[in-house]
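Milestone 3.1: sequence recovery, worked example.
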């Protein structure tokens, strides 16, 4: 497991904090608030892919956070 960063996502009009880790070839968005969903993504052929249907709902928001993080790393 690689600890990457924390970010705030605006979901359904509510701001929620997520801890982003990299594990098992997936970027995982783990909510600070345990009642929230965990989201998982992977990078394939230079495109972000949601690992499950729940993650598909927030892929655009998550993709933006991941791209900003990766851009800062270069």
């Amino acid at each position: 497991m690689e600890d990457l960063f924390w970010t705030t996502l605006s979901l359904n009009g509510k701001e929620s904090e997520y801890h982003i880790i990299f594990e098992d070839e997936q970027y995982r968005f783990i909510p600070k608030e345990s009642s929230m969903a965990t989201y998982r993504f992977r990078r394939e052929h230079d495109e972000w892919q949601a690992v499950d249907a729940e993650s598909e709902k927030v892929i655009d928001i998550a993709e933006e956070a991941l791209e900003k993080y990766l851009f800062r790393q270069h």
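The chain has a mean pLDDT of 95. The chain is about 25% helix and 50% strand.
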